[in-house]
Automatic annotation (TrEMBL), chain A:
Source superkingdom: Bacteria
GO biological process, one term: phenylacetate catabolic process
InterPro entries: Aromatic_CoA_ox/epox, Ferritin-like, Ferritin-like_SF, PaaA_PaaC, PaaC
Protein name: Phenylacetate-CoA oxygenase subunit PaaI
Gene3D superfamilies, per the entry: 1.20.1260.10
GO cellular component, one term: cytosol
UniProt-listed SUPFAM superfamilies: Ferritin-like (SSF47240)
TrEMBL record, chain B:
Domain of life: Bacteria
Segments forming domain PaaD zinc beta ribbon: 109-157
Ranges where the MIP18 family-like domain occurs: 6-66
PANTHER family listed in its UniProt record: 1,2-PHENYLACETYL-COA EPOXIDASE, SUBUNIT D-RELATED (PTHR42831:SF3), FE-S PROTEIN MATURATION AUXILIARY FACTOR YITW (PTHR42831)
Coiled-coil intervals, chain numbering: none
The name this protein goes by in its record: Phenylacetate-CoA oxygenase subunit PaaJ
Organism per entry: Niveispirillum lacus
A Pfam family recorded for this sequence: Zn_ribbon_PaaD
InterPro entries per UniProt: Fe-S_Maturation_MIP18 (IPR052339), FSCA_dom_sf (IPR034904), MIP18-like (IPR002744), PaaD-like (IPR011883), Zn_ribbon_PaaD (IPR056572)
Amino acid sequence: MSDRAYFDYLLRLGDDSLVLGQRLGEWCGHAPTLEIDLSLANVSLDLIGQATYLLGHAGTMEGEGRDADRLAFHRDALDFRNCLLVEQPNGDFAQTIARQFLFSTYQRLLFDKLAASPDAQLAAIAAKAVKEVAYHADLAAGWVVRLGDGTQESRQRMVEGLEWMARFVDELFAMDAIETGLSARGLAVDKAALRLAFDAIIARTLAKATLPPLPSHRPVLGGRKGHHSEHLGHLLAPMQYLQRTYPNASW
Amino acid sequence: MAIDAARVMEVLATVPDPEIPAVSIVDLGIVRGVDADRSAVLLTPTYTGCPATLAIEMAVRRTLAAHGLGHLDVETVLSPPWTTDWISEAGREKLRAYGIAPPPPGAAATRLRGAELPTPCPRCGSTRTTEVSRFGSTPCKALWRCQDCLEPFDRFKCH
């Protein structure tokens, strides 16, 4: 099957995991405590593992000989299809947790559905990954509560982190022509239908954290079409440096 | 050439897990079986991002070759996803002796329903234990502490 739309869909899934995995890796050795350092590095590892499988599958579907490494290291920012949320800078720990909380909650709902995909390979990847993502979502929600219901300082930072990240939530659930078409063929999840469940989980955790509801912003869209913020290029530069400088280098 | 699946499994049982050398990859349930029709050994990763996956595959190829079984293919299967319920009884005992609390059999299915079973301390057996960190030294372990002997210990995550 050579199907540009489906290839694009798999890139979206893979790039979300890859970019967030790389972002979280930036915390390695810098997190506030050893336990958090381990947690964020392990979440990063899970996401990069997902990306390896998803991009590998995308390359197979494309049928032009590109493997996961080729797709990860030899595409320019304009060719990345990740959502804008995952490329946002880490900021402080609260901002990182805000991003993780929103993304993992979304990804858990999405992969739960993808585990029933008629594409057996995608279903297998999703069924495996959703167990890991459940862990990520619980970890992040736990920290939202601890920071939100913590000191005045931690609460203020949590509020500000969520305030920044909230504008990128609508993009997670936006359906464009590509996904609507695939969804009609049963190959993509109708993400709009996941929004109610997402909102309920977010509201429940925020209430537990004694935090106000997510602020409503004008949504910022564009990542799925390759219209990224300036942050993505700065993330890709160190990630792709070695393979761009010494193409096909291997260990 | 016909494949003696039992012998292949015996050979694979000598391959230690690179991160927890006290147990073999067969004990951990990483070897899903031998496909005699396709002359292939089927491996499954514990976690998608487990950094040991490649090391395990290389160790398997090396060990098979050393036993004259180098003609076998090594394939990765994702489905059904690995679960700690596949760790053998012998594997659980070896983990405990090594100081890592194994998940009780069947615990993974329970965790998915939102319940965590109590984890006995691998040193003194006390069930008065608490989680220190959900993520430990590897993706598959969490850090716990015993409130009786006060020792910290790794717990194999229910997964």
